[in-house]
Amino acid sequence: MSATFVGMPAFPEAARAATGDAQLRHNLRRATHTIRDKRAAVVGELDDWAGLRAAGKAVKDRTLRHLDVYLERFEAAVTAAGGQVHWAADAAEANRVVTDLVLATGERDVVKVKSMATQEIELNQALAEAGITAYETDLAELIVQLSDDLPSHILVPAIHRNRAEIREIFRDRMAAWGAPAPDGLGDDPRALAEAARVHLRERFLRTRVAVSGANFAVADTGTLVVLESEGNGRMCLTLPDTLISVVGIEKLVPTWSDLEVFLQLLPRSSTGERMNPYTSTWTGVTPGDGPQEVHVVLLDNGRTDVLADTVGRQALRCIRCSACLNICPVYERTGGHAYGSVYPGPIGAILTPQLRGTGGAVEAALPFASSLCGACYEVCPVAIDIPEVLVHLREEVAGGAGHRAERAAMGAAGWVLGDRRRLDAAQRAASAARSLAPRHLPGPGAAWTDTRDLPEIPEESFRSWWRRRSGPGEGAR
Amino acid sequence: MRIALFITCLNDTLFPRTGKAVVRLLERLGHKVVFPEDQTCCGQMHYNTGYRRDAQRLAVRFVETFADADAVLVPSGSCAAMVRDNYPRLGAPGSRLDRAAAEVAPRVLDLTELLVDVLGVTDVGAYFPHTVTYHPTCHGLRLLGLGDRPYRLLRAVRGLELVELAGARECCGFGGTFAVKNPDVSAAMGADKARRVADTGAEVLCAVDNSCLMHIGGTLERARAGVRVVHLAEILASTEEEPARI
Ligand code: SF4
């Protein structure tokens, strides 16, 4: 995959193009509403959902508080089970570790299980630079890879595509990557899935190295866990000789009984299923069975900085279920690409600026890409108060250099609002000039009047009415 | 009961008719309304846009102004939520603002909470012979948890026909400075909301927040949809003798 988010415009501009794309909005609306409704139905049938959610939050918080302890416990357990743990401080280091491991096998092809961590570090590009081809095996990732596109959703990276578009992509691009699409391929989901199955099967049987991420890592036993729907992950995790897993350090849970909570929270929040079709777990090497060389790359890449922020750290509880994307009215209108990162939607709006810092234009715009409606917080299975973190990050951005004019305007507004006499005077001035109020505002005000009428300015403010009504001295306490 | 009214800067400046309706309604129900004149603004816009320090100053003014009030009525869901939800995390832990906020926050009420929970009425004796649909604004819905209170109040209004709004729980796209910082997304959300409102066939769209109504109403008006937006207080204040102007 050579496409990259680098050089994308900041959210408001990217969103303008997206909101004007009727096909995209139609695809997104259909897809998000379908998953949203499925989630609501399966969450609604559990009477202890609130308790599960609280437990998920508590387990993650406890783990993050003592992350150093659990990470070392995990490393020891993996090592004891015949696996090898590598530590990567940033994307470059993780990419180097994985590239070297693949090169050492002598292979030049790897199959991949869908993984956000490897997307985050742009592993495929790094491998390509070293002459290694990474083949995505998740159906949606495959669509994105074949079309040289970018992912637009955490769970369904090709959510912005409809069936007809997918058929075109398979027909035109599959042959360049391996087994071609069958002649006369239709666009019904079964035919498309079958075409992908045939295309991938041959790849699974030939490839000796696999790269994965993990949904969870159990510290007690050194076990990695992947939840998936298609079975492609199971193939990648069992058939090759070498398995390399890139795992964010926040993926840890202490024990298997902690894991149990998340095995209930994740499928219902994510795909809207009571249980996902495939749950794979592996612990180091099992002689004679499955990959005989197992590596785990523990990735920091900004996570310890996030951990240091007492408000922002709750973002590390995220289990990447996508429920916040599917419910988000902003995401529904813009899609994922507008967020300029592999982490789109509400979680992306708080995670990307924290992982990358708020210095860049894309990152600085993200905390404002929300109306603060709170729907994301409501559905989040680990109760991340996304609006709280958004406001917290807005503060960081608003204090920066790009916000001098706004800061001055806010300061002026604060000054007027900070005293009843000044507010009163401003209200009187507005009422006196009410007949002059324009229908279309210039400058930033145009953002309002381009699509909406302004309310009429009343003859007098409430406080002035109150004063007239109660007489002097009355009314004030 | 003596009720202190925090009108909010937006209502004060642009929607005094909502404030007048609140006063008329509560006096009709036999209560005394006071209006502490030192009040200005809760600081929501500053807080939500990232200007915590400005918001803190406004919050200090608020908690001082309403320190002695038994009940503070805020006829705006998002401003009530600002005080109740955000004031407690606005000041440094243990600071004066922090302590004062914890003191005053529980006494801050939205109109529907005041009526249903504190005053124990759902039938306020109102008359409003129109079809009405209700938009549960996000902060009223998710931060205040108003639940079915507004619907119970509306159902008890004589002459009023309440019609259901599809996708009611979805944000209208106002979001304060969001409307200006992300105008395209805000307008797209507003247009969808306005379309759904128009689809109900209602004459009037009602909510507990004039900021959202200003956004949806401005969109409806630009589309010449013919639906009026009216704050819940104005519907509840309306009687046969003094009907609300719509
Ligand atoms: S923030 Fe919460 S809802 Fe969003 S992806 Fe993460 S766990 Fe899921």
Structure commentary:
The complex is a heterodimer of chains A (about 475) and B (about 250). In chain A, about 50% of the residues lie in helices and about 10% in strands. Chain A is α/β, with parallel strands linked by helices. Chain A has a six-stranded parallel beta sheet, with helices on both faces. In chain A, strands 8-5-6-9 form a four-stranded mixed beta sheet. In chain A, β5 (about 215-220) and β6 form a beta hairpin. Chain A is globular. Chain B has two domains: about 1-115, Rossmann fold (3-Layer(aba) Sandwich); about 120-235, 3-Layer(aba) Sandwich (Rossmann fold), CATH 3.40.50.11810. Chain B is built from 13 helices and eight strands. Chain B is globular, with a radius of gyration of 18 Å. The chains are: A alpha/beta (about 475), B alpha/beta (about 250). Chains A and B meet through α1, α15, α18, α19 and α20 of A and α1, α2, α3, α4 and α8 of B. The site of iron/sulfur cluster has 14 residues of chain A, from α14. Iron/sulfur cluster binds near residues 269, 324, 381 and 384 of chain A.
Bound molecules: iron/sulfur cluster
Query: Which class of secondary structure composition applies to the elements of chain B?
Result: alpha/beta
Kindly give the count of domains of chain A: 3
Q: Which CATH C-level class of the largest domain in chain A is it? A: Alpha Beta
Mean pLDDT of chain A: 93
Largest sheet of chain B: 4 strands, parallel
Q: How much of the residues of chain B is beta strand, in percent?
A: 5-15%
* Rounded radius of gyration of chain A (Å): 26 Å
Please give the alpha-carbon distance between the first and last residues of chain B.
Answer: 30 Å
CATH topology of the largest domain in chain B: Rossmann fold
Major interchain interface with per-chain residue totals = A-B, 68 and 66 residues
List SSEs of chain B in N-to-C order.
EHHEHHEHHEHEHHEHHEHEH
Tell me, what is the CATH class of the largest domain in chain B?
Alpha Beta
Uncertain residue ranges of chain B: none
Number of strands of chain B: 8
Distance linking N and C termini of chain A: 69 Å
Structural class of the secondary elements of chain A? Answer: alpha/beta
Enumerate the strands of the largest sheet of chain A in spatial order, edge to edge or round the barrel.
1-10-7-4-2-3
Tell me the name of the CATH homologous superfamily of the largest domain in chain A: NagB/RpiA/CoA transferase-like
Q: What order do the strands of the largest sheet of chain B run in, or round the barrel if closed?
A: 2-1-3-4
Question: What value does the Rg of chain B take, in angstroms?
Answer: 18 Å
